[in-house]
Amino acid sequence: MKNTAVMTAEGLVGKIVDISGKFAICQIMQDPNIRVSARVQRNRELGIIKWDGSNGFFLDQIPNTIDIRVGDVIFTSGYSQIYPAHIKIGIVSHIEINNQFLFQKINVIPAVNFKRLEEVLIYLPQSTVKTQ
Questions:
Q1: Which residue from 40, 107, 115, 118 has the highest number of Cβ atoms inside 10 Å of its Cβ?
Q2: What CATH class is the domain 5-128?
Q3: Domain map of the chain by residue range?
Q4: Which class for 81: exposed (0-12), middle (13-18), buried (19 or more C-beta within 10 A)?
Q5: Is the pLDDT of residue 61 over 70?
C-alpha cells in the first residue's frame, strides 16, 4: 500500500511511494525530499527530521530555549497518516546553538544502518488489515 511506513527492528527506514506487481519502491530517510514529524523522548518536544546530506539526520524546528541533550532518543511523533508514533529514528549526537538564529542545529545518528539494510517491515494500518 502506498504511503505506508517502512521499518526494521532498529527503527524507521522510510515510506512506500509506489507499488508494481510484487515489488514496492521505498523512499528511504536518506532522501533529500523526505521530512518526518519527530518527538524527543525525554522532554516530548516536537521537531522535523530531515537528511543531513551525509550519513545522518538533522532535527529541525527546535528553538534555542529548549533543553536538548546528546544521547536524547528521537521517535516518530504520530502526527502523520503515514508514520505511527514511537518508531525510533535515532539518537542526538551533536547540538549547536547560535543565538543569531531561532533554532538549534541538532545532528542525529540514525537508528538504522542504511549501509547494511537487507530486510524491512511494512506497517499496515489497522484499517487496511483484513480479518476473517
A1: 40
A2: mainly beta
A3: 5-128
A4: exposed
A5: yes
